[in-house]
Amino acid sequence: MVTRTYDNSHSDESTNGVVVMVEPYSQKEQIQQVVYRILDANLDRAREGLRIIEEWCRFGLNNAQLALECKRLRQDVAKWHTPELRAARDTPGDPGTELTHPQEEQRASIKSVLQANFCRIEEALRVLEEYGKLYHPTMAKACKQMRYQVYTLESSLMGHQRHQLLWRSRLYLVTSPHETLLNNVEAALKGGLTLLQYRDKTADDSLRLEQARKLQHLCHIYGALFIVNDRVDLALAVDADGVHLGQQDMPIAVARQLVGSQRLIGLSTTNKEEMQGAIAEGVDYIGVGPVYETPTKVGKAATGLEYVSYAAKNCSIPWFAIGGIDANNINDVIDAGAERVAVVRSLMQAEQPTLVTQYLLSQLNRIKPEL
Ligand SMILES: Cc1ncc(COP(=O)(O)OP(=O)(O)O)c(N)n1
Ligand SMILES: Cc1nc(C(=O)O)sc1CCOP(=O)(O)O
Ligand SMILES: [Mg+2]
What we know:
The protein is α/β, with parallel strands linked by helices.
């Protein structure tokens, strides 16, 4: 039973013979105490989560604007942390301090840390909104607004992360159907791959969905970007980082409306006009090719290294040379000006995808070590 003391007396043993007068809380007061404890715990939770996000914005991204946004939200939350709510705290009596989930003890990547903490903040704000209604209706309203601000922050931060990783990625693996699809991809991720596209032109949708989900999960664990070829719906269904479209696919403006500004859109280009069009339409990256004729894309004439050189001089967004590129000719493509390449067979048919990934990356990193 929750009790309280009055008459300035204390109920613990340190009272040393002083008569202790203890009066039980009324049921209403007990409930109020519980509500206060919930509010106190969740105000702490929201602030801690915001601080974790803020540290990444500040030290990881050097992004003063995002860091300031976190700080402002943290201070807004703090305003509600009144002495009466703090006074309700009873850490030793809280059974929740012992409860942890194995997933909380291990995080695979910065992305996982950020996502877990955004979830934590959003949950805490939701709890504050609901229980806040029993405390102060203005607090409930303020927490609701803050929750929406956190959603916006999450979306711009995750979009920022995606763009940063895209710019840093030099090797892009585009998959082909394979019996050991997941193993091959994981081997490449172990070799340092940071950008993957799921491409299967023939599978039925249920298999596509299943494989896309598994690949998305794998990329999440390794902190790599996951892109879906051709299909905006599939990309959204598996919460991919973006979609890759061809010149014959859905118009970029329509795709952008569907995927939003924070997800990536890539577009294949084979000539200067397509490149300029892609940049004007606001895609995030382009494919430049096919550099060499390739059985993976039968019937598409090679553009040769001239288009690669043109891209090197004129393309203002990340671009990936693609088509027939392997360990034997990658240096010719690099010499023509490529800093990034995309491959299918070189990795999907490699006996040791980890080693080939490492080799291709070592050649790409030779030119300008830090992109
Ligand atoms: C990185 C990258 N570049 C080009 C393509 C080819 O896309 P598209 O022209 O739409 O042809 P399909 O791949 O759909 O056959 C790509 N997928 N990725
Ligand atoms: C899927 C694709 N698109 C291309 C383009 O130029 O648009 S070339 C290509 C296939 C690349 O496969 P590989 O590395 O096995 O040659
Ligand atoms: Mg396509």
